[in-house]
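Milestone M4 deliverable, item 7.
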Amino acid sequence: MAGTLKQTRSQKDDEDYISLLPDGIIHHFFSFLCMRDIVKTCVSSIRVMTLHGWGKVRKFHLDINSEHCPLNDDLIEHIFSFLPTRDVVKTCVLSSRWRSYWPTVLDLRFSVSSPHDSFVDRVLKLYGRSKVRKFHLDINSKSFCPSKIDSWVGFAIDHQVEELLLDFNIWCVDCPLSPLLYNCSSLTNLRLSGCCFPFIENISWSSLQSLSIHDMDVSDDLLRKILMGSPVLEYLNLERCWGIKGIRSTSLKELVIESIGVEFPLHISTPQLLSLSVRGFYFDKIISIVEAPSLLEAELDFDGPIRSDFCQLKKMLFQPQNATRVLFGPSCVQVMCAQIEDVQVSLPNCKSLTLHVAIPEFSFSPIANMLATIPNLEKLNISDLDSYNFDDSCNLDHTSYWHIKKKFKHRARHLKNVEIFGFHGCLRFNYE
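Output delivered:
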C-alpha cells in the first residue's frame, strides 16, 4: 500500500510541469489572470503553493461593477469624504454602480474661481440628501455676486450642516457673510477666512464647539456676541485679526492667537481654559491673563514692539502660574533671561519647558539662572531655530558638557531630562 502511494505521488510530481518554469515566466502568466484564478493555481503545483508567487504580482485589478466588489457603500462614502466634490462627480465614469452615489455624499467641497462656473448650482440642484455633514467653500475671485454665495450658504444651513468652511482668498476685498449664518443650531465646527459681518446682530450657535477666524476685522463687540452666543465653544483660533480688546468665555478650553493686531491691552478671562498659544507678530500691547486657573499648557512665541517693555512683558510671561507644560519663543527667552530688578516671578507648577532659541546667539548661563524660577521642572528641551545652519562653534568639549549638566541640576533640583537640539544632532542629559 505504501509503495502504491509513493508511486502515485511520484507520478504527480512528474506531471508538475509548472514547477519547471522560472519565476519570471510564472509572474508573467499571473499578470493576465484575475486574483481568484491566481490563488487557484496553488493546487496545480507544489512549487507554486510553496513559492506564493501569486502574492508577488505587480498588477491589481478590481471589478468595481461586480456585486462581489469588496467596496461596500460605507467604504465608498468614506473614500469620497476625502475628495473635492468635483472629483467625486468624475467617478461616475469609473463605475455604473457609483453613478447614484455622488448626489448623496455627506461632505461637499467646492473650489470656485469663476463666477460663470455653474458646477456648484448643478450639484446642489441634484443633491439627494436632507442633511450635509461638511460644506467647504473656497472662493478665488472677487467677481462673485454676494447673493450667489448667500444661496450656497443657505443651502448648507437648510440641510443642517455640521462643519462649515468659508474661505475667500480675495485680497483687499471682504466678502459679507449671509445673515442666515447668524442663527444655526446644527453647526459644530466653523471656519471663516477673508469675510466680514456686514452688520452686528445677536448670534446663536448653540452647538458650536470649534471656531476659527482668519484675516478678518473682529471688533470687540462682535467677538463678545459670538462668545455669548456659543455656550459650548471649546476651541477658538484667531489668526491675522484686529480690533480685539478682550476674550471672555466660560466654556473655552483651547485658545490660539496668531499674528493679531493688538492695539489695546488684550484681557483674557477664561476660567475653563486648558491650553493657550500666542504666536506671531504685531503685538503692540500687553496680553493680560486675567483669569485662567485651569491652564495646563502655554505656548508663548511672539515678537513685536512689545519687546521694549521687558518689565511688563516678563510679568506677563509668568502669568500661566498653573501651567505644567510651557514653551517660550526666542524673544520671550530673551526677556525671561534678562535680569530685571523689582520683578519677582516664578512658574511653580511647570514640569516641562521648551525653549526655541538661536544656538549661536545664547549662553547657557542665563538659561541656567532662569531655571531657578521654575523649581519643579523635570524636563527641559532647547531647540535651535535653524538646526541645519550650525557650524563647529556649536560643538561642546567634554569639560563644558559636564559643567552645563551640573549647573542645570544645581538650579533645578527636580530636573530629570535635558535635550538640546542643534549640536550636530541632539545633546542629552539624563539625571539618575
